[in-house]
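Hey all, quick one. A colleague (J.T.) asked me to put the zinc ion job into the tracker so the inputs and the structure tokens live in one place instead of scattered across chat threads. No bug as far as I know, just bookkeeping. Sequence used:
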Amino acid sequence: MKRIILALLLALSVCSVLQAQELKTPSQANGFSKPSTYKELTSFVQQLDLKSDFLETEVIGQSSEQRNLYALKFSSSGFGKDPSKIKVLIFAQQHGNEQSGKEGALLLAAELVKPENHYLFDRIDLAVVPQMNPDGSEKNQRRNGHDMDLNRNHLILTEPETRAMHSFFDKYLFEVTEDVHEYSPYSEDWEKYGYRKNADITLGTTTNVNVWDKIRELSNQDAVPSILKYLNNKGYSSFVYCPGGPPGVDYIRHSTFDINDGRQSLGILNSFSFIQEGMNGEDTFADNLQKRATSQMTGMMGLLDYAYKNQISIKELVAEGRKQLLNPDYGSTVSIQMEHVPNGSKLMLPLKSYSTQADTVVEVSDYRPVVKSTLDVTRPMGYLVPASNNELINWLDSQAIIHSKYLASGKASIEQYKITKIDSLDFERDIIINPVVESRIITLEDPSSYIFVPVNQLKGNMIIIALEPKSELGLVTYKQFEDLLKPGLPFPVLRLDKQ
Ligand SMILES: [Zn+2]
């Protein structure tokens, strides 16, 4: 009898030791010698879910090769149920050969189940999607199982991974989002230049001029510097996200203003939206994995720290910004072509010398930090899309854009573009099409063959950018939609306005 009790007590205490033990991520458990596989990630997520009352796991969709996409939802009050909480979404590894975003997200999840971090959930409901592209990850390749770049797919949404992400976003309407990537500093250009970028983490935010100014201002001028400082205080080097260069070869700018990536596609809905890029390993796989993973995790913690401290001001700005999208001013304009321009300031860029291995700072003269509109259109009441155009109707549905049968009204003025010829323009160093158009007011012969797409909805600015024929970020710049532009013929999508 005594012996049985002793055995029981022993078993209980082993149990509680196990309970208190930290759960290690798969990569942590193998000493960061290799990234976590999809199978290891799945089992880790399940163990973590069992361990924590704060965590609930949702499968938000499947990849093109039918692997699960997991969202780890942390909340102390039932996810998305308390309207006073700030909703934060972090998603990683859209690019399968950028392994540290996933590893950082798993380390973050393991940290967040510790009691000392539970205070964050007094103010935050957090969802973490550690792996957006499991198919690419298994092969350590950038693209998904359909050979598509997911981070250029957020407007056309042809891929199951991006569709899953946007319907998950639409369900909760997160106020803060972060898309986690890696950059590789080891290109030939830079080696020839003699220096390379060397920051453990770079952080960028929205630049598209259609994102409400006040949101861009607070993100660029306060959030980014605060999070970079948080990283420095924890011993990681950090710098503002700035692609381009090397100096003298190409200009340096901040984020793209295209809305087809993880950051701007959510930013255009007036969210606080960020891109975090860690520095990839020299082998683009397991090299330096521990530091890469911990620096990514620390950057994500920095974002949570910022959201926690600025919960009220961020929530107010996002609510106001989204109200403007729902009740837009019809006289106002939307930019459909933009460019990166200098503003006289010089960039002091921290670099590492190839010859001496020393850190240095280089002054960049061709630095273009400001995005300015080069072509605006006035905001219509909405668009008329031919009901027979399946490609467009499917697109409206995959974006969950509100639309209805068009009920003709004598009070509407309908504007049609005619494509006179197709020119080209330089968009962030890519040559893309730029149609020349004429416009005229028409009377519709068969109004019932059209679908009405109002622009007074959350995706209103996105709709305008997508549907205007001269938009350099529009649907017509994608292969799937190039048939919309035929020289000499009218553009099939019509603008509708009050008379
Ligand atoms: Zn990437």
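Adding what we noticed when we looked at it: The longest strand covers residues 412-427. The mean pLDDT is 95.
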